[in-house]
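Table S2 (continued). Query chain:
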Amino acid sequence: MNRAIFRIIGGTYLLSLIIYLLIPASVTTIHWQPTESIHIHHYFYGFMARIVIGFITLVYNNFPKRLLAVIYGLSLFLVMDEFNMWLKFREDTPDPYEHLAPIIVLIIFLALYLLDKLKKSP
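Corresponding output:
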């Protein structure tokens, strides 16, 4: 495992989560609403960023990996932040487990990091 890239992805994800939790909900409505009936949520931007990263990774060998890791960490947060909306396909009902998926991903990152550290130690 490339530890530096892993730390960049995890750090960017954690920083995104912290910033999101510190900013009031009234400010974090990042979406594009071209018409009254169309509402594009921020997880769309996360999906698009991950598609672009995948394409760049497959096509270009000399693209800066650290930049891709930062964009990947941010896009991972944007996608996972609204995971509960994927399951319900609606946004009008409040969910008490709204932040559960981003926190589970953070726990998985920490567990993988600790397992790698344990594997490397004598």
